[in-house]
Amino acid sequence: MNKIELLAPAGSMDSLYAAVQCGANAVYLGGNKFSARAYASNFDNENMKKAVEYCHLYEVKIYVTINTLMKEKELKEALEYAKFLYSIGVDALLVQDAALAVLIKEALPDFELHASTQMTVHNGEGAALLKDKGFKRIVLSRELSLNEIKHISKDLNIETEIFVHGALCVCYSGQCLMSSLIGGRSGNRGRCAQPCRLPYTIVDSISGGEQKGYLLSPKDICTIENIKDIIESGVSSLKIEGRMKRPEYVAAVVSSYRKAIDSILKGSDVNIEQEKKKLLQLFNREGFSKAYLFGNVGKDMMAYTFPKNTGVMLGKVQKDLSIALQEDLSIKDGIRNGEKGFTVSKIIQNGNEVFEASKGSKVKLKPVDFKSGDILYKTSDIKLLSSMESIYKNPFRKKVDLDLKVKFKLNEPIKLSTIYKGKQYSVEGELVQKALKQPLNTDKLKEHLKKSGSTPFRVANIQFDDVQEGFMPVSSINESRRKLIEAIENDLLKVNRTKGLEALKKEKASARPIPKCMICVNMLDQMKAAFENELSDVAVDIFYKKSDIKDEIIKENSVWLKVPNIIKEEFSAVCSKVEELLPYIKGIVTANLGIIHKFKEKTTIIGDYKLNIFNPTSTQFYNDLLDGICLSVELNKSEMLSLAKKSKIPCQIMLYGKVENMVSEYCVIGSTFGNKGVSQNCSRACEKGTFHLKDRMGACFTVNTDKYCRCHIYNSVPTNLIDNIDELEKAGINNYRIDFIDETYNEVNNVLKCVKQKEWNGDFSKFTRGHYKRGVE
Fold first, then answer.
1. Phi, psi of 150 (to 5 degrees)
2. What are the Peptidase U32 collagenase domain coordinates in residue numbering (predicted)?
3. Closest CA to 17 of 69, 46, 75, 57
4. Structure confidence at residue 451 (pLDDT)
């Protein structure tokens, strides 16, 4: 329990200083490239060196994010960058792309790897697979409950990291293609445009009912009240989100969580309500949520009415335009009035201008950017921000105390010694001279020896072993103190590496063939149309909530089983179903690492496109696990062709189908039409209607649910590369996948006839070629 790590974000050097000075045990940050926060300031090589040295002087670990998917041409540069980070002493890398894991394990086998949350690890088997592959730590998906975290961390003895504060993605991290497909900005490449923070309308096509709002915008996570339970779960690291946030935010959040952790580990006092109020003032979206730690609370974890910083309620504007303050207020505080905002320039109380006013006061404000009846919110507190700014402006404010022994004897060198972390450090300086005028007394010596300057250390106590009246220039005394501290710092900055796991170069014992054309269906009519078109390699999704494909149908027909990419507490039940059907099926299709780990020796497995296979080297990671792989839908034509040509594992591409833009533990149907919340379960609205999400531009995204009440949002139009079949085959792509989501029997029949003819026979305006031409940046 005492080894719990508080892990803080650093999007800039000031944020790094703030994190360390406020008590973080480790920080995570990104370089100029390959970071999932491409729009943060990030660190160039020179500042990265400074960051590592600064953190290590305070014995704070530093983790660097190289957690994006990488194009083939980028891998060499990424590996060289990893080598640079290794050479300067970075403690670990956070990785998403399996290719980088392969390359680092070959070139730098003792460089510690952490599996980014972008790898979507959400069950014990998946965590075990990555541990077997050499990952030291797993950053778990934010959708896990406390019991699931405990199972992976304690029962399976896997080192884990979880997010405890900050923004929450509505989609499972690493599974979101929304920004990529609607705007070309890939979240997997660090360029998410955050379409989840935009307004949507959910429409029931059967009843005509609709509901509007910021329906995909979750509240931020805040777990400061639950730190004891989280620590007891066995998790190793508590992570604060916020590399895009300002340093004042980092300072305040880290300091609050430091207090909360210390109250558990050390029994120190903390006012949790006061700390939570501070966190609310810093940033919140209609309050906070606990994510899924204590269950799925539906609408109560969402910020339906306002997707940005809500602030805390300041008061309601009266008829005379005065406000009875519900919070303290100062000049330069930030105020929100609906969608608008302003900074307070004047506060008038009892006819007098004042610099600040207390809660309960009746005041008037300027500028008067409001009217009677408006409710104002305080979005920034200048006093709080200023107090936090003073922390990071002095990066050596926090000091480590040293006890010093001094020998100051005539005609002998001055000698300083101290013990730090059980090791003795000693230095000798210049000779102590006879004083021609006034000799140095012990008070003067103490004064000069206690000047610590720009270092983390401070001389707290001085013991004089042997002192005689003598003289030495102040510069010489300072030089001796500097050398002593420098000796300690040099030890702290040494790069120590221990041999780690060697690269795993396994291959599957006997690769099994994969189909030329695989048809994925979730309804009996779709399956029927596939068989009527003499296409026998059908993958059935019986986990779709409305699926009418029964086990008997599967047992009577030789089909593939499409297993969910997300499986949490129902993992055992899903595995039991797969085991039951295993004698009757050709194999399974999934991107679930846990299922892959569980069944890799038992049947043919084709990796789903949500495995995000982005380059040839990433296929090597799965050599011993998969028989085939459906490539990422974010690749362009040339990238797909190169990958397929170089891969030892047969590759499929998506030829036709609505791509799954999002999969979410939160169900937009159940939380709106079903009214699911903390105190109410869903009314199974998804079973009674047919739903789609409509965005501001009028695009409609199909919304389905599975049997475990997860929400799946599909692209507004299907990808259609049927006209490109000849081109693909000439280039060596011979394996295709066709997905049917909500298509009717007639629509399926038409698509499959076109596939046979290798030509689309209708209007192409209702389709897209996706990233086939351009790919993603």
1. -60, -40
2. 376-491
3. 57
4. 86
| Residue in this structure with the two tokens 């014990």, named with its chain if needed | 124
Percent of the chain with pLDDT over 70: 97
Same domain, 652 and 705: no
Dump strand ranges (E) for 608-708: 628-630, 651-657, 660-664, 691-694, 700-705
- Per-residue tokens: 719: 């990808």
Pick the closest to residue 580 from 565, 561, 607 (CA basis): 561
CA distance 8 to 62: 10
- Is 302 a domain residue? no
Clarify whether residues 619 and 709 are in a common domain: no
Which tokens sit at 645?
């040509």
Indicate which CATH number applies to the domain containing 113.
3.20.20.70
CA gap 98, 613 in Å, rounded: 8
Express the helix, strand and coil content of the chain in percent, nearest 5 each: 30, 25, 40
Which residues neighbour 73 within 8 Å (Cβ) at sequence distance 6 or greater? none
Among all chains, which residue has been given the structure tokens 């606990």?
A: 290
What pLDDT does residue 58 have? 96
3-state secondary structure of 270: coil
Does residue 384 contact residue 317 with C-beta atoms inside 8 Å?
Answer: no
Tell the burial category of 253 from Cβ atoms under 10 Å away from its Cβ (0-12, 13-18, 19+). Answer: buried
For 440, the domain range is 400-492
User: How far, in Å, CA of 677 to CA of 298, rounded?
Assistant: 5
Least confident of 175-189, 465-479, 536-550, 643-657: 465-479
Tally of domains in the chain = 5
pTM exceeds 0.85: yes
* Token digits of residue 605: 């497995």
706 occurs within a structural domain: yes
The answer to the question of residue 305 being in a domain is no
H or E segment and range at residue 377: strand 375-380
Instruction: Say yes or no: 181 and 231 in one domain.
Output: no
Residue 663 sits in the same domain as residue 637: no
Coil, strand, or helix at residue 29?
A: strand
Alpha carbons 658 and 549: distance in angstroms, whole number: 20
Q: Phi and psi of 654, rounded to 5°?
A: -75, 115
- Does some domain include residue 772? no
Specify the residue for token string 């792309």: 97
Q: What is the spatial distance between Cα 340 and Cα 203, in angstroms, rounded to a whole number?
A: 29
pLDDT, tens only, 320-358: 999 999 999 999 999 999 999 999 999 999 999 999 999
**CB-side neighbour CA atoms (13 Å) of 100:** 32
Considering the chain, what percentage of its residues have pLDDT values greater than 90?
Answer: 89
- DSSP SS3 for 703: strand
Q: Which two tokens stand for residue 658?
A: 């609505």
Same domain, 49 and 183: no
Tokens of 613: 């296979």
